[in-house]
Design a protein that fits this description.
This protein is an alpha+beta fold. It is 32% helix and 25% strand. It has ten helices and twelve strands. The mean pLDDT is 95. It binds flavin-adenine dinucleotide.
Length: 246
């Protein structure tokens, strides 16, 4: 059984960073705790709860929105200024009780292959703000997801900024309408005509893909869908939503 030595609940990002910046103490942060509490690695000695830190602001401009890392998924669902696709995909992440606990920062760091919210953030060209004790930096979401631990570099996600405009489409296959997707495809046509396509269920995390290179996908199969099935569904769903946008 896990034996934690300390639980911290600081009230500033600086205090969080100084707790994380102790090489001799294995420390991790908790956002909403929906994933971490069940999967806490054995070696973690201390946890830092982000609940009192803030990071809960959502700032809208005409073309962008910036979302604090501790904004709960239910707040995104309820945000009438947010793109409709983002709201629907936040709703899909889980039931009400889950959405009121889980934070956007947790979704990013969890980097789940089945997260349609993560795929939505990819098509809205999200940029992730990370703060470490050495300073702040920004990464595009694909770069962030390519190496989550390296991107965090011992720090924390503070915010995500994304574009709001463009036409969008979404399609999925799942065992039941409420279930996690086996494969999901999301696309957005930006105002300059560029089309972004993101897929769930074909890689280790949700991924942005080149619509002309779908035959290079090599998804891992599981009890819900073989590799061949996932690859075929990726092509079928992508074609369907890209046709909707053309
Ligand atoms: C019933 C249930 C259903 C779920 N369904 C889905 C699903 O459909 N799709 C899906 O993608 N996931 C799902 N999950 C997994 C997970 O709960 C989500 O990814 C969730 O949104 C994580 O958010 P959280 O705030 O609870 O993160 P936590 O559990 O608190 O943390 C998750 C990870 O992120 C890190 N972290 C959290 N916030 C930050 C931050 N600001 N900076 C740096 N690191 C941070 C933590 O250290 C930890 O490693 C599900 C979990 C449960 C229990």
């Amino acid at each position: 059984m896990q034996q934690l030595k300390s639980y911290h609940r600081p009230d500033s990002v600086e205090a969080v960073l100084s707790l994380l910046d102790r090489p001799d103490v294995k420390t991790t942060v908790i956002g909403g705790g929906t994933s971490l509490v069940a999967t806490l690695p054995e070696e973690v000695e201390e946890v830092v709860d982000l609940q009192a830190v803030g990071l809960t602001a959502v700032v809208h401009t005409p073309d962008r929105m910036t979302i604090g890392a501790m904004v709960r998924l239910q707040s995104l669902v309820a945000d009438k200024e947010a793109p409709e696709l983002l709201r629907r995909m936040a709703h899909r992440e889980g039931p009400n009780t889950f959405r009121n606990a889980a934070s956007l920062g947790g979704v990013l760091v969890d980097a789940n292959s089945e997260s349609e919210l993560l795929a939505a953030l990819l098509v809205f060209e999200a940029v992730v703000s990370v703060q470490t004790s050495a300073g702040g930096r920004q990464k595009t979401l694909p770069d962030f997801l390519a190496d989550v631990a390296g991107s965090l570099d011992g720090g924390l996600v503070t915010a995500v900024s994304l574009k709001k405009s463009g036409q969008t489409a979404h399609a999925r296959v799942a065992r039941t309408p409420q279930d996690k997707p086996i494969v999901a495809a999301l696309a957005r046509k930006a105002e300059n005509g560029d089309v972004l396509l993101a897929l769930c269920g074909v890689g280790e995390t949700a991924v942005l893909v080149d619509p002309t290179a779908l035959d290079t996908l090599n998804p891992t199969g599981d009890f819900r869908g073989s590799s061949v099935y996932r690859k075929q569904m990726a092509a079928v769903l992508s074609e369907r939503i890209l046709n909707e946008l053309s």
